[in-house]
Amino acid sequence: MRAPWSWLTTLASLPEGVGVRELARAYTDAGLQVERIESPAEAIDGPVVVGRVLDYVEEPQKNGKVIRWCHVDVGEHNPPGEPGRGIVCGAHNFDVGDYVAVALSGTTLPGGFLIAARKTYGHVSDGMICAEDELGIGSDHAGIIVLPADPPPAVGSDALAPLGMREHIYEIDVTPDSGHCLSLRGLAREAAQITGGTFADPYDAPVPADSGAGYPVRLESDDCPLFVALGVHGVDPHAPVPRWMADRVRAAGMRSISLPVDVANYVMLESGQPLHTYDTTTLRGEIVVRSARNGERLTTLDKQDRALSEDDLLITDDSGPIGLAGVMGGLDTEMTPTTTEILIEAAWFAPARIGRTYRRHKLPSEASRRFERGVDMGVPYAAARRAAELLRDYGGGVIDEAVTVAGAVRPMPSQVIRADLPGAILGLDVPGARVVEILRASGVRVEVVDARLRLTPPTWRRDLVDPYDYVEEVGRKLGFRHIVPKVPLAPAGRGYTTAQRARRTVLTAVAAAGFTEVQTLPFVAGDDLDRLGLDPDDPRRALVRLANPLSDAQPYLRPSLLPGLFGAVNRNTSRSLADLALFECGLVFRDTGAPGEIMPDVSRRPSPDEIATLFANLPAQPRHLAGVVTGEWCAAGWRGPAVPADWTHAVRLAQAAASALGVTLTRRAAAVAPWHPGRCAEVLIVDSAGVETSLGWAGELHPSVTAACGLPERTCAVELDLDALIAAAPAGRTIAPLSSHPAVKQDVALVVGADVPAADVRAALIAGAGDLLESVELFDVFTGVQLGGGKKSLAYALAFRSPERTLTEADATRARDAAVAEAARRCGAVMRS
Q: Which of 791, 793, 785, 790 is nearest to 748 (CA)?
């Protein structure tokens, strides 16, 4: 919010000694952060003075332009012995005797434009007569600035002061709960209270009851409880905007356009109440405020034809929609340069609904920003009356005697608090009488009942809802500098939960296995899943769409971690970093088909049933662990050739995570997108009862997926359900005692069918070998014509050990033969000789 000092001090009388800097410090101490204080004159280096046009000659040029060769009196800045300076000017909106702003030679204007005496159009032009855009105070370049002649300014004096360019302007960061400060009226009230000054509200006229007179208006939506309409007739469409008004509007960050537009903007900036003006002659019948209907369309003032949603609030007449309430008017009823009959609209619209509408249509504006924060429901009538009076005073208009007031001001919610609550929460000694004084100065109606206060906020303070809002208000008005920060003592805790410890253990183990953790944003586009090659009925296509996404290009929450990891790979490979082992742990989101959004009343704490309903309607959010490997796992060097990253390293991540929790994994071949059907393994857990739990998949990505996602060839990936893995982890683990007896090692090569998983053979060996088996590892896989078609040889290293005695070769051989027999029974294995 931009607030000119002169405008503020017109509305509020501040104590002696409170200047620009002092007020800025007071604002910041009260929670209104002053980001900067600027002055337009600071962008100009050198003198810009008042000049008086002595004479001019119009000279046509070969290029078709007609320039004026002028003599301008600049007082003490005239050349010695000369009545004025010769200046070439291309504008024609001035006459002899007019007062103008002259930038003298040597002056640098905004944008680094240096003024120097130079020859142009056959004359030496010694200075420049300035237009608004050249001084940085507007965008008008159609003509130069003509200064008011009553009273006549001193020739040669500073021209920036009468132009308002010596003004100090605050840039204030207004927090979302302080919508009343999006107005000069609100900021002036705050300034008076925090500095001990006085404030007289120029918009204190109460909203009258609906008399049924004036322009007909009907309200059909609870989101518009109040609508004021006031007509002004016979407005001069060519009436100029008074300079003081144009200067204030520009200083507040808006353009000066025309008298009706500037009046509406001026009143909005001053009161905080957005206004809309209609050309009354274009209206057709009664104005109705209602929700949009399916299929309705509206061409807005920006000439865009917009499809409307049922959530849009409309202003309509007999012709249909004529405006998006609180956002933008319709093209059919816009003001034109010839409009003389004006209807002023001042209404109150529900903040949340206006916020949704302008975001849906991408139409942010000064008006919608104020409506979204919540405007004063008690000010529409006063704002409309103020705008009508300005059009009467400066445009010659006649105000309708009848005013339309449809609806009424809703009562503000009351709250009861203990008088000592602010002091107790703020940690300050704040007597009850001081609390009452502060709140009454903020406009709150206070009734003292014993040691309790019954509080009713004013209509402009819709942020004062619960007891702690009033505590914050007292703290702000006392000043944050008085509140001593104290770090509260943390209560004794029990440390991390079991799930937290398990997650930290897993992440540490995966990092130790050679992977680097990344964090990606949880948003995806619909075509991200198409690139993964997912089937139409794949559960991962049950997307959760965000109501208000950060980017329309990614409106969904991720159902998988892989798209984000693939994006991280893309960013790294684009920077020539191709050898990657990345992993991420995070939530994924799956639509469970629960009902749509639920919006509880935020003016109070939700009930237990409402909270339960909210949680029940949340999408499924399991925590996943995923990784991706590309390029080389180990680079080539003196130790040997490079080791390419392959599916074994993707499986390595899963194995490291499971081992860290004491979980034994089982793998089997699978065909699941986005992995290659012949190079994909499903990762499972099999409990003691033989029940399988699928955790996810690991392997090499399908070539079409790597091409579609821009990944290096032979990229491999893994994704697991970490919550399921942690749930399967044993509650307690023991460390077996070390045996002092040596192990006996034997190898066995088994011939099985080519389609038999090595993991099944390993499981059979473990089951048959008995308690003496300490470890079993696959160390070779062989296929060849020697074995016959459809066969493969799997070679395992078996280690046997007894905790009680030294085993003999015969002991180990008996255990090995039992293991081979079980493998033969389960898998049809034959020992290879």
A: 793
**CB neighbours (10 Å) of residue 833?**
5
Give the span between the Cα atoms of 368 and 358, in whole angstroms: 7
Going from the first residue of the chain to its last (833 residues), give the mean pLDDT of each consecutive group of 10, the final group possibly shorter: 95 95 95 92 93 96 93 95 94 95 94 92 94 83 86 93 89 93 96 95 92 88 96 95 90 90 96 96 96 94 93 95 95 94 97 93 93 95 97 96 94 94 92 95 94 95 93 94 84 87 96 96 94 93 89 93 97 95 97 74 81 88 97 90 93 95 90 93 87 94 96 96 94 78 94 89 92 93 87 94 92 94 94 83
Q: Kindly report the length of the chain.
A: 833
Cα within 13 Å of Cα(736), Cβ side: 7
Nearest to 762 by CA among 811, 827, 682, 697: 827
My answer on whether 388 and 366 are in the same domain is yes
Between the alpha carbon of residue 8 and those of residues 3, 663, 672, the distances in Å are 7, 70, 67
Residue 242: inside a domain: yes
Q: Tally Cβ neighbours within 10 Å of residue 202.
A: 15
- Percent of the chain that is helix, strand, coil (3-state, to 5): 30, 30, 45
Tokens of 654: 């899963």
Place of tokens 């070390």: 738
Residues 346, 394, single domain; the answer is yes
Whether the CB-CB separation of 283 and 317 falls below 8 Å is answered with yes
What confidence tens digit (pLDDT) does each residue in 561-613 have? 999 999 999 999 999 999 999 999 999 999 988 766 677 777 678 889 888 88
Count of C-beta atoms within a 10 Å radius of residue 124: 12
Residue 614 and residue 599 in contact, taking contact as beta carbons nearer than 8 Å: no
Please tell me the distance from the alpha carbon of residue 671 to that of residue 533, in angstroms, as a whole number. Answer: 12
Distance CA 700, CA 630 (A): 10
Its domain, for residue 182, covers 2-39+167-199
Kindly state the DSSP code that residue 389 receives in the 8-state scheme: H
* Residue 120 dihedral angles phi and psi, to the nearest 5°: -150, 140
Instruction: State the Cα–Cα distance between residues 213 and 208, nearest whole angstrom.
Output: 12
What would the pLDDT profile of 752-811 be if each residue is shown by its tens digit? 998 898 888 998 999 999 999 999 999 999 998 888 888 999 999 999 999 899 999 999
Whether the CA torsion 497, 498, 499, 500 is positive or negative: it is positive
Please list the residues that pair with 334 across neighbouring strands.
Answer: none
CB 631 within 8 A of CB 712: yes
The pLDDT of residue 597: 65
The two most distant CA atoms of the chain are separated, in Å, by: 128
Q: How many CA atoms lie within 13 A of 669 on its CB side?
A: 10
How far is Cα 798 from Cα 105, in angstroms, rounded to an integer?
A: 96
Residue 308 tokens, joined: 């409307």
Instruction: Specify the residue for token string 């409009």.
Output: 339
Q: Which of 295, 323, 293 is nearest to 310 (CA)?
A: 293
Asked if residues 343 and 216 have their Cβ atoms less than 8 Å apart, the reply is no
The reply to whether 546 and 661 lie within a common domain is yes
- Residue at a domain's end among 374, 407, 440: 407
Closest to 144 measured CA to CA, from 69, 93, 87, 72: 93
Phi (first) and psi of residue 621, to 5 degrees: -135, 65
Among residues 746, 765, 741, 749, which one has the least CA distance to residue 810? Answer: 746
Q: Is 375 in the same domain as 424?
A: no
Handedness of CA 796, 797, 803, 804 (dihedral sign): positive
Helix 366-373 and helix 259-271: axis angle, to 10°?
30
Same domain, 396 and 308: yes
Report the relative pairing of strands 342-348 and 276-279 from DSSP bridges: antiparallel
Check: CB of residue 720 under 8 Å from CB of residue 657: yes
CA angle (138, 323, 282) in 5-degree steps: 90
CATH number at residue 194: 3.30.56.10
- At residue 585, what is the residue type? C
